[in-house]
Design goal:
Blueprint (H helix, E strand, L loop, with lengths): L1 E11 L6 E10 L16 E9 L4 E12 L6 E6 L10 E2 L1 E3 L5 E5 L18 E5 L1 E3 L1 E5 L31
Antiparallel strand pairs: 1-4, 1-6, 1-11, 2-3, 2-5, 7-10, 8-9
């Protein structure tokens, strides 16, 4: 289905400046087990952006400007980035320990790149992986209602058979 929004639960706000040029991108991981790639995906779909985002304690919602069509089988890679000119303390998200590393991160500005332009394997960035995954809620478009009901007009001479995939009308 089409993912329309994602939410993160912020337990503690420690940052003292807004997240600037905040963006979220999504792509399929092509692996239902969520094996991490060696680099951040480059073909991710931008789904949310804001020139400035200030977190609040509780669920923070990010409605997608472009819904992301997910097959419901493969894993998802969610990239979140921002570009602040100065460092700030980290906010605390509700997280769950996973059986393997499911999070990769990069931080730093030593080489002049920031936010979404940073590379994971750049020696000037602080990078890492983690098995502590932020708890995330996804809002997915509901599927069409089950059991469609068709009404034919005029109703005379309609073959009513529940096994008929394409009803026909006789003259």
């Amino acid at each position: 289905g089409a993912i329309q929004q994602l939410d993160f639960n912020v337990l503690t706000v420690n940052s003292n400046i807004p997240y600037q040029n905040f963006s979220i991108k999504v792509t399929c991981a092509n692996d239902p087990l969520g094996t991490l790639p060696s680099e951040f995906p480059t073909a991710s779909t931008p789904v949310f952006s804001s020139s400035s985002f200030t977190p609040v304690v509780g669920w923070n919602s990010f409605p997608f400007t472009t819904p992301y069509n997910w097959d419901g089988v493969n894993g998802l890679f969610v990239e979140i980035c921002w570009s602040n000119p100065t460092a700030s303390a980290s906010d605390v998200l509700e997280q769950t320990l996973t059986a393997s590393n499911t999070v990769m991160y990069a931080e730093g500005t030593l080489n002049g790149t920031t936010g979404c332009s940073m590379l994971y394997n750049d020696i000037f960035n602080i990078t890492g992986i983690s098995s502590m995954r932020p708890n995330t809620k996804f809002t997915i478009c509901p599927p069409p209602p089950a059991g469609y009901h068709y009404v034919w007009t005029p109703a005379a001479n309609v073959i009513a058979n529940s096994n008929t995939a394409s009803p026909t009308v006789t003259a």
